[in-house]
Amino acid sequence: MKKLYKIYTGLIIFFMYMPVVVFIIFSFNDGKSSVWKGFSLRWYANLFQDKMIMNSLWNTLIIAIIASVIATALGTLAAIGINNFSSRKRIILLNVSNIPILSPDVVTGVSLMLMFTIVGVAFHFQMGFWTVLLAHISFCAPYVVLSVLPRIRHMDYSVYEAALDLGCNQFQAFRKVVIHELMPGIFTGFLMSFTYSLDDFVITYFTKGASFQTLSIKIYTMTHQRINPKVNALSALMFLAIVIIMVTINLKDRHDEKKRGIRV
Predict the structure, then answer these.
(1) In a shared domain, residues 73 and 196
(2) Based on the domain organization, do 16 and 52 belong to the same domain?
(3) DSSP 8-state code for residue 213
């Protein structure tokens, strides 16, 4: 039974990651077709020389960084606020904050598009950078809440009270004690927000307007024609960035678990 389980797990992993391995391999192909014609870095060089792709990459990184920072701050404060409510209200607020996570991206994207269209008509502005940024903040913040809230529940409140007794005011105790205790969850929430913002396509597609373009939208428009090998190189770099972020999150979590074990 264990051997059958291992074979089944191996097949799932194989079918999940084999397409990724294929496009990474062909990102180093010297030819344009799916026939291997030799190892080359020409498509990576062409990728960094393409101004439209680089501009889309810059827009994506700017959106991801700003949205992650703001969502992390809002999500942390929201988690602290939710934790201060009674158990019944806490459950209600937590369920409400989970709605953007559970809702399909199409529903969220269309809803935000309609809202931005109505507000844009009223205040005479068009969808673009700011609407995409607000949309990314709205769906990234709930992930921060889910990441920070468990840390709050396991926090030792006597340390906060001791800081107050030793002369700190409430703000100093919050900054030096509470934020310090919650930092692993805050850091994990920031990385999750950055990853989801970097990877988002559907919500961005509905809220970008006509003058703004991110990397995922650019890749989508490139696939309308014959697949350009630069897409393989770009996808390989994006996959590598996501892997680095996820490995960083896991290593951070293991380090925190070891520190908690040492304290106990």
Answers:
(1) yes
(2) no
(3) -
Distance of CA 262 to the CA centre of its chain: 31
**If DSSP codes are grouped into helix, strand and coil, which group holds residue 128?**
coil
Verify that 117 and 221 share a domain, yes or no: yes
Q: What is the pLDDT of residues 18-59, one digit of tens each?
A: 888 887 888 888 777 677 777 888 888 888 888 888 888 889
Q: How many domains does the chain have?
A: 2
Residue 219: which of 44, 40, 57 has the closest Cα?
57
The answer to whether residues 103 and 80 belong to one domain is yes
Instruction: Write out pLDDT tens, residues 87-102.
Output: 788 888 888 888 888 8
Alpha-carbon span 160 to 170, nearest angstrom: 9
Residues 6+ apart with CB under 8 A from 42: 30
DSSP assignment of 11-72: HHHHHHHHHHHHHHHHTTBSSSSSS---B--HHHHHHHH-HHHHHHHHHHHHHHHHHHHHHH
Same-domain status, 169 and 200? yes
29 DSSP β-pair partners: 39
Report residue 39: phi and psi, to 5°. Answer: -80, 135
Angle of helix 129-153 versus helix 87-102 axis, rounded to 10: 140
DSSP 8-state assignment for residue 126 = -
Does 111 share its domain with 26?
no
List CB contacts of 152: < 8 A, sequence separation 6 or more: 79, 80, 83, 182, 185
Regarding whether 122 and 81 lie in a shared domain, the answer is yes
C-beta separation of 79 from 189 below 8 A: no
Q: Which of 90, 75, 78, 62 is nearest to 197 (CA)?
A: 62
* 59, two tokens: 């827009």
